[in-house]
Amino acid sequence: MTRLRGDAGRMGLEVHPYKMGWYNAKVEEAFRFPLHHDTLAVLVVSTPAMFEKLFLPFLMEESFTTEKVDPLDACIRAAMKDTSKHFPTEYKVEFVQDSDLLPSRRPRILVQTAGHVSGAAYYYQRTDVDPQPWSQESPMYGVSVHPKYGGWFALRGVLIFNGLLAPGLVEKPPIDCVSSSRDQRIKLLEKFNYSWQDYGYRDVVDGGHVEDRYSERQKRTFQLYRERDLSLCVNGGQEPKMVTSSDIQLSLNSLLTYFNLLSPAVSQIRTVYPLNFL
Ligand code: B12
């Protein structure tokens, strides 16, 4: 665990161990993992530093090709694969990512619940506000808040150590960092649900202080990401359409143009992309 934590830290990631049974106890049947209660699971969280320490260097690697439809997912997956090389071979270690789906199209892992039971980040749900000001019919998605980074982080996935039991692991409750008032929790949930695009929910934390935030460059890149995702998945807001290679080409082009404009150093990316993608 110490080695894993060290590796993760160098990449701008954090790791938080928990027992699969703690997670299974919270979620509905459909989301449970059919594993022994004490099975070791480790949540992987990205901090604002991940962008510079891991993602930009990954984009510059020789091995990066346009076949990887989602570079960020591919980047985290590669980092976990690399780190897993140090694990004893007798355990079957699987990395389940936030974007992985079950055949039912539901997410394979609910990373916010995993964040809560591992003690990494408190998961605020509508039930954390009493009484609730919203009607039961209106959706109000929950949001996790990290004690150091507020909302300036992401929950990337979980390493599952099949066959490795950790009976001695002690549950560490997450830090309740939006504890000051009911109004603060309402503000947090409403900002996350109604105006997440302005990043405001990420600063709703007791005392209003966070240790680090995404840089302007990181924000802009992730924004391009979302635009790209929409262009890939949505056809004028109507029916989902098939993803074509020209969609992917278009989106990667905009990402690369942006990098090239911002930083001459990153323009090396040009050299590792096939020319027809530029
Ligand atoms: C599908 C999805 C969406 C959908 C639907 C949202 C939703 N929450 O359902 C849409 C497209 C709308 C969406 C949008 C966004 N999303 Co989104 N999304 C997801 C995704 C992939 C799955 C969420 C899901 O379907 N949950 C299923 C429901 C049923 O889970 P649930 O409500 O938590 O219910 C469970 C808990 O209540 C638990 N439970 C029951 N009792 C108890 C008690 C306790 C104490 C606990 C802990 C748990 C617990 O059991 C229930 C299940 O049985 C997650 C990643 C992931 N794999 O988890 C990201 C995720 C939630 N999204 C995220 C973000 C940031 C966004 C956006 C801001 C866009 C963006 N990426 O920048 C917007 C903001 C929301 C909005 N205003 O629209 C982040 C949230 C980070 C955070 N700080 O919490 C996540 C975690 C992705 C990530 N990698 O970090 N998203």
Key words describing this protein structure:
single chain, 278 residues, alpha+beta, 2 domains, four-stranded antiparallel sheet, two-stranded antiparallel ribbon, 9 helices, 14% strand, binds cobalamin, flavoprotein, Cyanocobalamin reductase (cyanide-eliminating), oxidoreductase, cytoplasm, FAD binding
Question: What would your notes on this structure say?
Answer:
The chain is an alpha+beta fold. Helix content is 36%, strand content 14%. Helix 3 crosses helix 4 (71-84) and helix 7 (216-233) packs antiparallel against helix 8 (245-262). The protein is globular and about 50 Å long. The termini are far apart. The model is unreliable at 230-250 and 260-278 (pLDDT under 50). Residues 26-28, 31, 98, 107, 109-113, 116, 123, 125, 141-144, 151, 154-155, 192-193, 196 line the site of cobalamin (B12). Belongs to the MMACHC family. One of its GO terms (molecular function) is cyanocobalamin reductase (cyanide-eliminating) (NADP+) activity.
Small molecules bound: cobalamin
The number of helical runs is 9
**Shape by Cα distribution:** globular
Tally of domains:
2
Strand content: 5-15%
Q: What structural class do you assign from the helix and strand content?
A: alpha+beta
